[in-house]
Amino acid sequence: MTILRTAASGLALLLAAACTAPTPPRSQASTAAGTVCAPPQAPPEAETATTIDVIEQAYFCILGNYYSGATLDARSLLTAGFVALTQELNRGGRDVPDAIMPALTGDRKADWATFETAYRKITDQVPDLRDKLAVVTLEGIVAALGDNHARWTHDVKRPPDYYDGDGYGLGFQANVNGPQVDGNPGVALAPLFVTTVQGGAANAAGLRPGDVIESINGSAPFIDGTPTPAIAALYPRYPEARPVELRLLRQATGRRWTVTIKPGLYQRDLAALQVVRSKLLDDDVAYVRLTGFAPDSANRVLKAISRLRIGRTLAGVVLDLRGNGGGSPVEATRLLSAFVHGKITAYQCAAGGRCSTARTDDTVELLELPLVVLTDRSCASACEHVSAAVKDLRIGRLVGTRTAGVISGPAQSYLLGNNTLLGFPARHHLGPNREVIDQVGVPPDHYVPLTPQDAATGRDPALAKALTLLHK
């Protein structure tokens, strides 16, 4: 499933995946108290309040359908939910003397009953906080999974007057991108710098590629080489739009300055909206940039290569997957099938070791061309499916940096009783050699990072290396 930054886009993809997925057998879908945990068959109706009954439904939904639900210690979920509840009480200055974590035994149903009794006793004393406490409790339970493909999608809003093609945010991208911030922030490497100025406030403020971000709202983005939570402010979500103060360094001139940028809507360049972009390099190399594994994206890539192949002999293909946040695993497998047949491209496994396989679609015509794939730390999910297969199956060579390590498994969505969506993987992703990629990423064959100086001058050392490899 794609890792997306905007709530509106994330909900759209979640619904698309959910409404086309088969409904699990009732034995898997049923939860406690007769409630049902199943994929939605249509977009949900208007969201209603989150209650303890909805939390119960989500709790048993996870235990019955999450890939490691059968072996998961459910006490970890309830403890995380209770921690979130008490923290919210503290934030509101409304702590309750009886807000003490109850003793849990490991019996899932009995522990839920114990938790629910304590929860109701606490929330009955602060009825005005009941709705907020329910939300943070469920968020805490989902967060306890520690899974970058687990999401509770609720309270989705779009900015006013939001049109197709609009962007929302600060108007730039940095080398530490959304998938890292959301799913695996520990992989980020210093320094933090602007890679692309897309428009909006960043453009008005005069930001340029290569500008190093030394602080965000007064906080350092890295401390002793470790990324800090401050980086998340670069990717605001509507409606939590607060101005962001940046301290910047332009290395070419030595200039240091501070600018405050307010998130908002901006019109993106039309070329940047294209999922597939292609061109001919050095008269004999097909370059294709794929920004996401959207429906039919594999066919569009193959058609682009075919057009570039007309009237000439190609030396190879450069597939640029930098910044690709993922998408459909079906499209990932189909694209790989143009370069190899008769292979397993990934495994999807349950906690007990039972695995299904993703196999190449051998009806796809082979291109019979050398391949170099460009990767970076923003290549996540389905993008890592492709990267691992290219490396393990020796389809081509990877150039750039290690991928994001955000590929827990394809997420399935479930409709909760308040018309919100709970999503998580029913299977865990492994590479073709059965290796774990989640949290690890896929290392390149040739490590070629982008530097602030490269971004400032428009150099692309990874692409230059790819062309060298194809012309050897």
TrEMBL record:
<feature type="signal peptide">
    <location>
        <begin position="1"/>
        <end position="21"/>
    </location>
</feature>
<dbReference type="GO" id="GO:0030288">
    <property type="term" value="C:outer membrane-bounded periplasmic space"/>
</dbReference>
<dbReference type="InterPro" id="IPR036034">
    <property type="entry name" value="PDZ_sf"/>
</dbReference>
<dbReference type="GO" id="GO:0008236">
    <property type="term" value="F:serine-type peptidase activity"/>
</dbReference>
<dbReference type="GO" id="GO:0007165">
    <property type="term" value="P:signal transduction"/>
</dbReference>
<keyword id="KW-0732">Signal</keyword>
<dbReference type="InterPro" id="IPR029045">
    <property type="entry name" value="ClpP/crotonase-like_dom_sf"/>
</dbReference>
<dbReference type="Pfam" id="PF03572">
    <property type="entry name" value="Peptidase_S41"/>
</dbReference>
<dbReference type="GO" id="GO:0006508">
    <property type="term" value="P:proteolysis"/>
</dbReference>
<dbReference type="Pfam" id="PF00595">
    <property type="entry name" value="PDZ"/>
</dbReference>
<protein>
    <recommendedName>
        <fullName>PDZ domain-containing protein</fullName>
    </recommendedName>
</protein>
<feature type="domain" description="PDZ">
    <location>
        <begin position="169"/>
        <end position="234"/>
    </location>
</feature>
<dbReference type="InterPro" id="IPR005151">
    <property type="entry name" value="Tail-specific_protease"/>
</dbReference>
<dbReference type="InterPro" id="IPR001478">
    <property type="entry name" value="PDZ"/>
</dbReference>
<dbReference type="GO" id="GO:0004175">
    <property type="term" value="F:endopeptidase activity"/>
</dbReference>
